[in-house]
Amino acid sequence: MTTTTSLFRLQKLDLEIERHDQELTMVRRGMAGNPQLRAAEKRLADMETQERETATKQRRLEADLAALEIQIKRDQARMYGGMIVDARELASLEKEIQHHAVQLDALEGQVLIGMESMESLQQMIANAREQTGALGDQWRNSRPGAKRQVEEQESSLARLNSERNALAATLDARALGVYGRLRSTVGHAISPLSGGICGECRIAVPSKDVQRVRSGDLVSCANCGRILHGAV
Question: What Cα–Cα distance (Å) separates residue 115 from each residue in 66, 164, 211?
């Protein structure tokens, strides 16, 4: 096996290792917590906070309404109870009762709107709790399968890394150094050569370099700098 063939195989192993690493990271992230579930839990918590705030506001409105009703009844009792005989005082009290009546209508409207809002919010919370519960069940039920996936990915990675290390041990330090630098800068270090064309940058390779690649020499593309492999 030529050096370029070994490097090409090494690149395939590295790409496979990267893929398994990414999949393993995603599975582990899913086991740690479901983003959809976390978002649903936050939405539910926000709605429950809103419900408590709405309930507090509603109790305050109802208390104000009850106090105003008592005040109106008290004023009406004074007006019609014969306790006030002064005309100006009676007129002033009547005007105050009328003012309170307007306030009463407004408060009753606010209380009614608050009741409707609370009913709507409670229905939304019930739906959110059902959705959150379903997502939680789904996530918990998926954990055994995810655990098996982690074990399978870890086993595959161990095998691939072992194979990679064995292959890398057969290569000289210079070839590995060039390969490593290219991998860190351009990603794919090895480019397949087909019909005299570099597979990565699609630039024609001089015929003398094509012959050298066929001979198994370590040749870099003059345009992109990648190591050329497999002239046809």
Answer: 16, 68, 86
On whether both 133 and 182 belong to a single domain, the answer is no
Residue 165 CA to its chain's centroid (Å): 36
Q: Supply the range of the domain harboring residue 31.
A: 12-168
Predicted confidence (pLDDT) per residue in 97-154, tens digit: 999 999 999 999 999 999 999 999 999 999 999 999 999 998 888 888 888 989 999 9
Contact 13, 164 (CB under 8 A): yes
How many Cβ atoms are within 10 Å of 193's Cβ, its own excluded? 25
* CA dist., res. 132 & res. 44, Å (int): 8
How far apart are the C-alpha atoms of 51 and 29, rounded to whole Å?
A: 32
How far is it, in rounded angstroms, from Cα 164 to Cα 14? Answer: 8
> What is the rounded CA–CA span in Å between residue 49 and residue 58?
14
In a domain? residue 97: yes
pLDDT in tens, 168-210: 999 999 999 999 999 999 989 999 999 999 999 999 999 999 9
Q: HSE-up of 197 (CA within 13 Å, CB side)?
A: 7
85 and 150 share one domain: yes
Q: Do both 161 and 179 map to the same domain? A: no
Q: Which residues of 15-31 are buried (b: 16+ CB within 10 A; e: fewer)?
A: eebeebeebbeebeebe
Place of tokens 């379903």: 134
